[in-house]
From TrEMBL:
InterPro entries: Peptide/Ni-bd, SBP_5, SBP_5_CS, SBP_5_dom, TAT_signal, TAT_signal_bac_arc. It comes from the Bacteria. It is found in: Cell membrane. Belongs to the bacterial solute-binding protein 5 family. Pfam families: SBP_bac_5 (PF00496), TAT_signal (PF10518). Keywords: Signal. The keyword Signal applies. This is ABC transporter substrate-binding protein. It is a lipid-anchor.
């Protein structure tokens, strides 16, 4: 069976596109059905945590491929990397490996596997499993999503003996430690079998983590139970977990509301329901990070090949009105590709503060008049709420605007067929993979990536210039110099406005503090319950 991974599979199973995980963040909310009723009355069972996830559970569960918000959250409970990262601080800690690397600037790291580590089927974890996993990640034919975050710096992985492996780098790469959490180690004896990768996509899970999958019912729920054979650093805190997939916002809020609420925690809380849930005694907190709405332009369609037109459409948007009306104050106008609060954030050399007069001047300078724009968009609820402000803003500077929100899969089926379009509005969040600027930019901007093909920017002189700048920054080990190079390419991305954020927004999580402790709101979709406890 060919290991080539088709674009159709990519959308079907992972909800991701190219180097970026598009549906992974807010977009994987496009599927999901009624919740299971199997845990009705579970609110009083202290051996069980019932969670409500606002994204579909019916996309890929293959850790090397998925960008599904639900699956990635679940995978963090059932699989381990050599190193994993804390879900909030994002600091790496030893997982299957016994220690962190001692020299972050070395060109190779050797890891020893944890004694007694077992797969959920009872077999021991070995160096062959590590080799098997990384061979898939680095395989150009398999071309898996996770490979986009390793291929630029990881040369190869060598087996030293049954308990030790060596990672050999192309050059020193200090950010490799937190990056290793993306590479969830998988059992060779299970997933080397014929058809096993398709089974992984469909929900077959055999990990070494503290929980093992108990049952998986696509579009309903996925349940987990504590793995008695786990001897790692973050053991299960409850015997059972049941995660309900409820994409409909009203039904999701209802599941956590009231004195007889079935669930103790829910993510993806609508802004309009925050005060209501707080009044019921729930804790509702937001996580600020890279979640954002962006505009992507078709640079092969005139006049969007002209940077002045792309910039004009950004300057024209009344972002504060969008934040006040659509996001209920839970957002920030983008001042860089990176969100404010990111360690490498700095106001870009070009910031699209609301300036309708500048927008008009740029359009005039570009010789563009009587412009009509059809804005295609995904129909994720908060994105749809933002669209009227964009339309009104563009109309105010003389741009006739039509809005075309639609199902995510339908929109990208058109993109995959390279049907003609002008501008797309959608959401993205690379923070579920990691926090460093190199990873975040490679999420969208990568040579040969589908985003670059969608925008018809791949292969251009300017794209080549950006990729060279990104490569230069990635190889720089001096922190101050590297930061300077990062800001240089972030300025370039801002000025080009090919695929660029309009606003960064908070993601809201609600939980019952009388029934759960150890919870922190994440700045990316999903939940992490590895340190949660029933109270």
């Amino acid at each position: 069976m060919s290991s080539e991974f088709s674009r159709r599979d990519f959308l079907r199973y992972s909800g991701a596109t190219g180097a970026a995980a598009f549906i992974a963040a807010t977009l994987s909310a496009c599927s999901g059905g009624p919740a299971s009723t199997g845990s009705v009355g579970a609110g009083s069972n202290k051996d069980l945590i019932t969670a409500v996830i606002g994204y579909g559970n019916d996309q890929s569960w293959d850790p090397t491929q998925t960008a599904s918000a639900f699956a990635m959250a679940g995978i963090n409970h059932v699989y381990e990397g050599l190193l994993d990262t804390d879900p909030i601080s994002r600091e790496p800690y030893p997982a299957l490996a016994t220690a962190l690397p001692s020299d972050l600037n070395a060109t190779s790291w050797t890891f020893t596997l944890r004694d007694g580590a077992k797969w959920h089927d009872g077999q021991p974890v070995t160096a062959d499993d590590v080799m098997f996993t990384f061979e898939r990640i680095l395989d150009p034919e398999a071309n898996v999503l996770a490979g986009n975050f390793f291929k630029s710096w990881l040369k190869e992985v060598k087996k030293v003996d049954e308990k030790n492996v060596e990672l050999v780098f192309k050059f020193p790469f200090p950010d490799a430690a937190p990056r290793l959490t993306i590479a969830k180690i998988m059992p060779k004896h299970v997933f080397s079998q014929a058809g096993a990768w398709d089974q992984a996509k469909g929900g077959k899970v055999v990990g070494s983590g503290p929980y093992k999958m108990k049952a998986h019912n696509p579009k309903s729920n996925t349940s987990f139970e504590a793995f008695d054979g786990y001897n790692g650093p973050r053991p299960a805190t409850v015997k059972q977990m049941n995660w309900l997939t409820i994409v409909d916002a009203a039904a999701r809020v209802a599941k956590i509301s009231g004195g007889s609420a079935e669930a103790q925690i829910a993510d993806n809380i609508p802004y309009a329901n925050v005060d209501q849930l707080k009044q019921q005694g729930l804790t509702v907190e937001g996580g600020k990070g890279m979640n954002h709405m962006f505009l992507m332009f078709n640079t092969a369609a005139k006049p969007f090949d002209d940077v002045r037109v792309r910039q004009a459409l950004h300057y024209a948007i009344d972002k504060q009105k969008m934040i006040d009306v659509a996001l209920k104050g839970h957002g920030t106008a983008s001042s860089s590709f990176l969100n404010e609060g990111h360690p490498d954030h700095k106001r870009a050399s070009v910031v699209y503060d609301y300036d309708p007069e500048k927008a008009k001047a740029l359009l005039k300078e570009a010789g563009v008049g009587d412009l009509t724009v059809n804005l295609m968009a995904v129909n994720v609820s908060w994105i749809a709420d933002c669209l009227p402000t964009i339309a009104a803003s563009w109309e105010a500077v003389g741009i006739k605007t039509t809005l075309e929100p639609q199902d995510t899969a339908a929109l990208f089926a058109k993109m995959d067929q390279f049907q003609d379009y002008q501008v797309v509005a959608a959401a993205s969040n690379p923070n579920q993979f990691g926090m460093d600027a190199d990873l975040i930019l490679h999420y969208n901007y990568v040579p040969g990536g589908l985003w670059m093909k969608y925008s018809h920017w791949d292969g251009t002189k300017d794209a080549g210039k950006l990729f060279a700048m990104m490569d230069e920054a990635g190889k720089e080990t001096d922190k101050a110099q590297r930061t300077e190079l990062i800001h240089k390419y972030l300025d370039f991305v801002a000025g080009q406005a090919i695929l660029y954020p309009v606003v960064h927004n908070e993601l809201m999580t609600a939980w019952d503090p009388k029934k759960l402790s150890g919870i922190h709101a994440q700045p990316y979709p999903g939940i992490n319950l590895l340190q949660a406890k029933r109270t």
